[in-house]
Amino acid sequence: MKKIVLTRIDDRLIHGQVVTAWLKHLKADAILIVDNDLAKNTMMARIYKAAAPSDIELLIKTIEDSITFLKGAAKPQSIFILTKTPEIIETLQSAEIVIREIILGGMGANKNRRQLIKNVFASDEERAAMSRMLAGGTRISYQLVPDDRQIKVEKELLEKSK
């Protein structure tokens, strides 16, 4: 199985903070974007690959392909997982991918989301997924960049902001 060095939820996936701060901090070999739609959109996939540093392998896979990849014993890698929603991570966990900690980045506002903390907005379904993961022992916190203080997300916070 691959070594997961960080799992992050961020609508923007790859952007300046990820490239400059998190990758330097993590020393990851590869970025795995888990997104069914993006994995099928070759034009957008090319744009993300162009945004990634040339010395980091960028993989864009469906959830199912990500599970197979993460369980694979091929070459050992340190993987930085990026997703847009907590439900994707919950699906990975239900397939026995061990993810003990999640860092929230930007989750933008939309008509279905309400503010959780700072620039993190979550829908009822996303809050429910995070609550289930917390109950299962996964640590969730908000941290924009590695040098920032982590803000823990706890069940009370998910319920309080409803």
Structure characterization notes:
This protein is an alpha/beta fold and 162 residues long. The protein has a single domain, classed as 3-Layer(aba) Sandwich (Fructose Permease), CATH 3.40.35. Helix content is 38%, strand content 25%. The protein has 7 helices and 9 strands; from the N terminus they run βαβααβαβαβββαββα. The protein has helices at residues 16-26, 36-39, 42-51, 63-71, 86-94, 124-135, 155-160, and strands at 3-9, 30-34, 57-61, 78-83, 101-104, 114-117, 120-122, 139-142, 151-152. The strands form 2 sheets. Strands 3-2-4-1-5-8-9 form a 7-stranded mixed beta sheet, sandwiched between helices. Strands 6-7 form a two-stranded antiparallel sheet. The mean pLDDT is 91.
CATH superfamily: Phosphotransferase system, sorbose subfamily IIB component
Give the low-confidence spans.
none
Share of residues in strands: 15-25%
What integer is the average pLDDT? 91
Distance between the termini: 38 Å
Biggest pleated sheet: 7 strands, mixed
Sketch the topology as an H/E string, one letter per element. Answer: EHEHHEHEHEEEHEEH
Give the total of beta strands: 9
Strand order of the largest sheet: 3-2-4-1-5-8-9
CA-atom Rg in angstroms:
15 Å
| Individual helix count | 7
CATH level 1 class label:
Alpha Beta
CATH architecture: 3-Layer(aba) Sandwich
CATH fold-type name: Fructose Permease
Percent helix: 25-40%
What would you call the structural class? alpha/beta
Tell me the domain tally.
1
Shape assignment? globular
Protein name: PTS sugar transporter subunit IIB
Organism: Vagococcus allomyrinae
Keywords: Cytoplasm, Kinase, Phosphotransferase system, Sugar transport, Transferase, Transport
Pfam families: PTSIIB_sorb
